[in-house]
Amino acid sequence: MIEENLKNLFKEIPEYNPFGEKVTIVGAVKFQTAESINRAVRAGLTDIGDNHVQEFREKFDLIEGSPRRHFIGHLQTNKVKYLIGKTYLYHSVDRTGLAEEISKRSLNAGVESDILLQVNIGSELSKGGFAPEEIERACEQIKKLPALRIRGLMAMLPLTDDEALLGALAGRMRAEYDKIKTYDENFTYLSMGMSGDWRICLQEGANMLRLGTCIFGHRNYN
Description:
TIM Barrel, single chain, 222 residues, 8 strands, 8-stranded parallel β-sheet, 36% helix
């Protein structure tokens, strides 16, 4: 199933988005076994993203093929130390304090960490992230931190069947991304789109998709 799902995704998802940017698929591997992840990597998945630090640590040495490791879930500051030097990209930097902790730990370890700032584009109380109107100011503050590079923005769209709303929110995210990209050469990634809404997000300009169910099927929460 995993191999067939990826084969179909590789056929359906274009290599470049409408803005001419290369599209990266990040496999969301929450609750997946190391064997399932390895099957996906063998089938061509180059990037994988963890939601939980404990899972990241438990499976880190069991993953074959050296895929790029992303952290895509909510991250507590006291767990940052376990990810430093092992993570290609932190997607969910949703507050200045977290950026400061990643900066401090990276500086101490002699590495530079790449991050995305999470934007609460739907203004949802259940989600973290910077408000859209705050994101430029947050970028200016955080980019001054040592051993840290802001590589773009990340968002999770609301769970809704209203495709017009989703398209509008995704379009606003692209506009915020483009605005900052004009004066920040490090801006490369707009991480937006999951299994239920990736087509809309891709059409509006996402260039990094975080896909779990599309690849692995429905998760077993037991």
